[in-house]
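Thread: iron/sulfur cluster complex, take 2
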Amino acid sequence: MDASERQSLIRSVRQRLESLARAGVDRIALPEIAPPPAREKPSIAAVKVIEMAPAVPIRPVAAPRPVAPPVSSRSLFEEPKIEEPILSPDDRVAALATLAADVSICVRCPQLAESRTQTVFGIGSPTARLMFVGEAPGADEDRLGEPFVGRSGQLLTDMITKGMGLSRAEVYIANVLKSRPPDNRPPMREEIAHCLPYLERQIEIIRPEFLCLLGKSAVTALLETVLPMNRLRGKWHRYRGIPTVVTWHPSYLLRQPSAKKEAWEDLQLLMQAMGLKAPDRQKPAS
Ligand code: SF4
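Output below.
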């Protein structure tokens, strides 16, 4: 094939491709061509056809559409619920006793294990509808082995009894930390991480209908949020499916009595959901 024949062949191939493109053909199947013998160089004509092919206005083959990932039936923002079976009241008592025994010998936080008098596990009904979660034992709690027994404990008791019309024995009260931090300093992140599994297990065993988180440490531990308290209180949250209210820690209320009004509003949220009425205030005898 001489040069003019090659040019003529190239021209007719180009015209054919352009005519196919005008007719709407956007792809053509090429017959499989056996590769030339290794020693044989490709012909000049073949090289030119390959070079010219992109100039032919053939619509590009559409790229395959991206396939959407399978949609989970559970929202990304939905808290995973507690999967463990609900225990009978007797089994709850036994499970809490076993857990308390584990806690009593815990040394995960060496400094706290060294300085504490004893661990402070929790107190109240193993079938409580409402569970309060505070921060950590103070000096009185460390001495007596019971949460919320000092001045702030008395205020919490008043909130439960005089405010909500419940008894302390009807609810369950626990702290994030089970050992007293020295000098009542705030719990450290690492200590919260060490102790949190015990609190999580308490909640799994008791399975309260409602949670009330008292102060920032309880919020940080269970709700994993960095929002300030005043953005969190006064509304509902969820911890593993359990409706949860956030309010001020009683020790803060002792320092800031003006915040008691907000704490009362938070308790009323709980009471409304629990179907509780505030007890009648006894009128002083005239
Ligand atoms: S605070 Fe909790 S994790 Fe740390 S030593 Fe006490 S019981 Fe153990």
